[in-house]
Design a protein that fits this description.
410 residues, 35% strand, five-stranded antiparallel β-sheet, mainly beta, 4 helices, single chain
Length: 410
């Protein structure tokens, strides 16, 4: 494993531009997962919402803002046929740029316009700016279960402000550079055409780009990868009068379709996938559009975080003849506008926090056959009253957890 410059030929890149560093596997087919902590110099800025991730893998991240250390977690979730060395993730990083176009509001410069790049250049008051990083620690897990570690110095690139003034002009070459340099790049942003998502690549709207520095200026709004359905007239179509907004897969044989009515329909068969967090679900870019969830009869299991944090969702229903058996940890966590849920009679297992922090939930029907409910399955859902069968496991759970319940005959 290594972290390397995506384009090692780049040098003296423009201030404010985006540069990419890659997490590279020596043998792609052997990698199951990677966790790596990367310490980026404080003048540079992570823009990891826009990572490029290899087919068959997912990537999540957290950043310690005070240290500028990013923890990247890469997980194999599907098939990737790349043999030998390959890039798992390309990470966008933006160089430092000068804030301009404002007026000082205090101090000795009160009321005066902010300094420009050229003014700093003319005063010879500029300093070295680069992108550099250290790999604090990395752990790779291979498909055979073995592991390895990696660490060390990461890639580095200079910007156009590559030295202090006195050092730059101390050489003939540096003096010649200084004489023609304007002190720093200012973006000329142009709108890019909106890009529709495909089955494997994200799309976007509202993105702007600067040709001078060959960089995105404003990333706009991302559209997650998924399959889009079109009618003969080229218009997205769905059942009845509802148009399809987006669709795709959410398990080996499970599918999802979001309609403009706000209904998220889960179809197909088998399990809905587990996810590391709500931020990596296929519909993450549409969360504020989801008003209801309809789970098809062929679905047998709902994965971790699958339908969590859907703040606009008010309804969860299951198709007649449902084969659902299991709701994993945090399956519907934080869906706080949902008020009532009737689980299918086939359900046998409810995971930890599966219905946690559903503040508005008042009624939940628990089938007689449920034989496992995780600790804190309803934590934070203080208004809920469970409907449980008399003498059932669920009734005993409600009593032991001091959860309001109504006991029915069966």
């Amino acid at each position: 494993m290594k972290v390397a410059a995506h384009d090692p030929s780049l040098d003296k890149i423009k201030l404010g531009s985006v540069w990419y560093a890659d997490i590279v596997a020596t043998d792609m087919q052997q990698v199951q997962s990677v966790v790596v902590d990367i310490d980026l110099n404080n003048m540079s800025r992570w823009e990891l919402d826009h990572m490029r991730v290899a087919l068959g893998f997912t990537a999540t991240y957290t950043v310690q803002d005070d240290e500028n250390i990013a923890t990247i977690v890469i997980t194999r979730t599907g098939k990737n046929d790349t043999a030998g060395e390959g890039t798992l993730v390309s990470m966008p990083i933006r160089t430092w740029e000068l804030k301009t176009g404002y007026t000082y509001e205090s101090g000795t410069k009160n009321g005066k316009p902010a300094f420009t790049y050229k003014q700093f250049r003319d005063m010879k008051e500029f300093w070295p700016v680069d992108i550099s990083m250290e790999i604090d620690r990395g752990l790779v897990t291979f498909v055979d279960g073995t592991t390895d570690t990696f660490s060390g110095e990461g890639p580095q690139v200079d910007t156009e402000s590559y030295k202090m003034a006195k050092d730059m002009i101390s050489t003939v070459e540096g003096k010649a550079y200084y004489d023609v340099w304007d002190g720093g790049h200012i973006h000329t942003a142009a709108a890019l055409p909106d890009q529709a998502a495909t089955c494997t690549e994200d799309g976007y709207t509202g993105r702007t780009y600067c040709e001078s520095c060959n960089s995105v200026v404003d990333w706009g709004t991302a559209i997650p990868a998924g399959t889009y359905l079109f009618g003969e007239d080229g218009v997205l179509v769905g059942p009845g009068d509802a148009a399809v907004v987006a669709s795709g897969s959410c398990g080996e044989n499970a599918t999802w379709t979001l309609y403009d009515s706000g209904m998220l329909e889960i179809g197909g068969t088998g399990a809905v996938s587990d996810y590391e967090s709500q931020l990596v679900t296929p519909w993450v870019g549409y969360r504020d559009q989801i008003k209801s969830i309809e789970i098809g009869a062929g679905i047998t299991s709902i994965g971790r975080y699958a339908f969590s944090h859907l703040y606009e969702c008010t309804s969860i229903t299951f198709a007649e003849g449902s084969k659902l058996e299991k709701i994993e940890v945090t399956g519907f966590y934080y869906d706080f506008q949902v008020t009532s849920v009737v689980l299918p009679e086939t359900v046998r297992s409810i995971g930890v926090l599966a219905f946690g922090n559903m503040y508005g939930l008042t009624d939940l029907y628990v089938p007689q056959g449920v034989s496992m409910i995780g600790d804190n399955a309803f934590r934070g859902s203080g208004q809920v009253t469970l409907s449980v069968a008399a003498g059932s496991y669920a009734e005993l759970y409600a009593v032991n957890q001091n959860i309001a319940h109504i006991s029915r005959d069966k």
